[in-house]
Amino acid sequence: MQFLVRSEQKTHMNATPASDLLRSEHRLVETELDQLLHAVKHPTVDIVSDLRQALSAVQSLLQPHFEKEERVVYSYVRSQLPELLSKLDEQHEYARALEGHLVELLAAIQVAPDERQRAELVRFATELYDVIQHHIVDEEDQLLRLADSMLSQEEQTALAVKMKDVEASSCSTGKGGCARVPNEAPIES
Ligand SMILES: [Fe+2]
Ligand SMILES: [Fe+2]
Which domains does the chain show, CATH number per domain? Predict the structure, then answer.
């Protein structure tokens, strides 16, 4: 019902391509996060390999996503929403730190995790899942909702173009991963 109300409201609003691009990427990140959580909630004998694969998929989406947000949308609205942006910055920082801990831990495991390593894998992966899910809710309920009301259609369009440019330059330089949004229109020059 909530979805129907939101969809109906949106038909009366301006187009919001920058916000929509970030929302679409959130849905992709959530799918990969579910795999990460599944790997620790239903561990197989190959939990390390499962987690390496799931974490790599999360990172390949999250790194370019964070970069687009920070370099384009966050910087554009930061002066108007300083407190919110400082909270979102901290969440990005914490998610990156947890990612780093998981990467280090996985790299340190040679064959199979001992009990302490297994407990830490579960703790860090679960915490990473929770932090990112919480962050996505904060962005969608606060940042993107405010952006939808504050920014003009032209501003939204310009920000969406800039984010695609940031992604294209990250992909071409091999820096970070390259997020893919299904059915995304090709970049026009
Ligand atoms: Fe974010
Ligand atoms: Fe986001």
Answer: 17-173 (1.20.120.520)
